[in-house]
Amino acid sequence: MQLRILPYRFATTALWLLFVSLACLSAGVWAAESNDPLPSWSDGKTKQAIVSFVEKTTRQGSPGFVPENQRIATFDNDGTLWAEQPVYFQLIYALDQVKKMAPQHPEWKSEEPFASALKGDMEKLMASGKEGLMKIIAATHADMTADEFSENVSQWLKTARHPKTNRPYNEMIYQPMLELLDYLRANGFKTFIVSGGGIDFMRVFAEQTYGIPPDQVVGSSLKAEYKVRNGKPEIVKLADINLVNDKEGKPVGIHRYIGQRPLFAAGNSDGDFQMLEWTTAGKGPRFGLLLHHTDDKREWAYDRKSHIGRLEKGLDQAKDRGWTVIDMQQDWNQVFPVATP
Amino acid sequence: MQLRILPYRFATTALWLLFVSLACLSAGVWAAESNDPLPSWSDGKTKQAIVSFVEKTTRQGSPGFVPENQRIATFDNDGTLWAEQPVYFQLIYALDQVKKMAPQHPEWKSEEPFASALKGDMEKLMASGKEGLMKIIAATHADMTADEFSENVSQWLKTARHPKTNRPYNEMIYQPMLELLDYLRANGFKTFIVSGGGIDFMRVFAEQTYGIPPDQVVGSSLKAEYKVRNGKPEIVKLADINLVNDKEGKPVGIHRYIGQRPLFAAGNSDGDFQMLEWTTAGKGPRFGLLLHHTDDKREWAYDRKSHIGRLEKGLDQAKDRGWTVIDMQQDWNQVFPVATP
Fold it and tell me: What start and end residues bound the annotated signal peptide (chains A, B) (predicted)?
């Protein structure tokens, strides 16, 4: 909890403030609260487990001490750092791009999966399966330079708004997770995103939004090629999958990009199961963290039967594997950051 | 130049030292020399070009100022950070492994390319071409876990010695380049290796040798898969190429791993041409650096006709493209670090 600066207009207020301060100081509460690195996390066993782990692994002389160059923390993105309902935001981006590009593609009116995408018929779109999705990806993510793609995403983030909250998508992020990222970094951890989402998509906003630079973002990707066109060197994105960084693809992505096993891994769905399994199978202290979406008032409540971010195996095995499960409703006293005015 | 601590036995020596110190101080030489971040670089236009670039891009208020999060520096490894003669050290590793594994593979005595590898017949080995090389790679770099591979490389580095100098391979590194890496990092640059060499091979020594952590190493790679065997999660290296990080593969590797265009790129062969081209085609100040091996006394002299590290296009175009070429013989007053006793 941040200490609010109270108006200092009346002597009585000043006096009251002084009393409260003294009372807090004597109880040690002031110091504890103002230094709390995780103010949006309710006091309880989840927060305590995180803090204990960080203290244990970073305190010189502690039996669980881990040198700074091995303090790797990986975070899933969709449903872990930002929301993923009603559908993955990158899919919303793709559909918005289809709409934007439609005037140049009159044939899409009768051609699937574009016809369903343009009508907003999600059920029929999903029925087009992997092949259909790949056509949407090819049309909206490939056959353009990497710079053009980044520019498109950047423009979209400025104008697109979440259907439920009307906030920009990069404000649909979890305040407690921002604090956790900061807390880990302040303790010498190097923080990475390891997500099934597109690497080039996330890199557009990850640094500004999460403080995670482009080279610390691992995600799914398309192949690319280097071309010099009219004397101008370019990276061109191809309509051909390079890596699906999900499920058993996550430890592979971690190996490929990070090159060492994480000390700490956080996710929210069974797509993160193998990342947590790989992480916590390492020697010495390791931390596996799962975010359980239990809050249908402030966010959404979903798990075993959800079409997005299904969490079943993780819930069943978390206890046996020693993973910590965040109960969003109980453990977070704030979900999203206060809106920028 | 490092200031040597002179024996302090005689008063005359002490007096002389004092005089020299005073003389240096009054001329500003002492201060300049003891603060020189690049002491193994001879004073001259190469060193000056590097220092000017770093000062221009890092001085607040300079028209060429670049924010710290965009200060990306990429270095080739073979022939740029460490030597590459008589052949790439990773090939020597592979051949050493073939010899080590031979007792378990009696069929190799008559099976190419292993027979030539075991006899040390490099010419015949090379004549086996890509297909032959791929067989050597498959036998020595695949069908094992990533951990097993790292352990093998680590063991090899401890015992293998360079045929000419009898030094461990990870001491066949260029002292001036170590200073350049340190100098760039001290000025807020993030340093990466971008090499045609194997990513898993380089990651074993890059941090200790160059101060470059595993996640900042980009190289060629094999595909890998995640498997849980007898309850133990493992990353298994497969005999299938994932990325050839050479020539036009280097900008692709940079895009894939680093996600932004470098500000500074250093290489030594035409395999680095596209990396320098991509780097220096960016907006604002950029730096392209090529190491020309001109020193057959302290190292090797080779360029246009070499079978390893051929440098032809780079030499022809460096001037027009504004790239800086290091003349090893002229520009470096020391090549390798002083041997550890």
Answer: 1-31
Chain centroid to CA B273: 15
Would you say residue B337 lies in a domain? Answer: no
By the 10 Å C-beta count (0-12 exposed, 13-18 middle, 19+ buried), A172 is classed as buried
The residue among B238, B191, B243 whose CA lies nearest residue B77 is B191
* Mean of pLDDT over chain A: 91
Q: Which of helix, strand or coil describes residue B269? A: coil
Q: Is residue B338 part of a domain?
A: no
Q: Is A197 exposed, middle or buried (0-12, 13-18, 19+ CB in 10 A)?
A: buried
Q: Tens digits of per-residue pLDDT, A239-254?
A: 999 999 999 999 999 9
Question: In terms of domains, do A184 and A52 share one?
Answer: yes
A289: which strand partners?
A: A266, A324
Boundaries of domain holding A67: 45-86+171-331
Domain boundary among B122, B137, B159: B159
Examine residue A31 and state whether it is found in any structural domain, yes or no: yes
Q: Which helix or strand (DSSP H or E) is residue B289 part of? A: strand B287-294
Residues B255 and B314 in one domain: yes
pLDDT in tens, B50-106: 999 999 999 999 999 999 999 999 999 999 999 999 999 999 999 999 999 999 999
Contacts of B256 in chain A (CB under 8 A): 199, 221, 224, 242
Both B261 and B306 in one domain: the answer is: yes
Do A111 and A78 share a domain, yes or no?
no
Query: What type of residue sits at position B58?
Result: T
Best CA proximity match to A73, nearest among A243, A188, A203, A221: A188
| pLDDT on residue B126 | 86
CA angle B119, B246, B333 (to 5 degrees): 85
Give chain A's domain count: 3
Cβ–Cβ below 8 Å for A225 and B215: no
Q: What percent of chain A has pLDDT over 90?
A: 86
Closest-CA residue of chain B to A259: B214
Other CB atoms within a 10 A radius of the CB of residue B144 amount to 15
Closest in A69, A192, A252 to B226, CB measured: A252
Interchain CB contacts (distance < 8 Å): A and B: 92
A299 close to A334: Cβ distance less than 8 angstroms: no
| pLDDT classification of A122: cutoffs 50, 70, 90 | confident
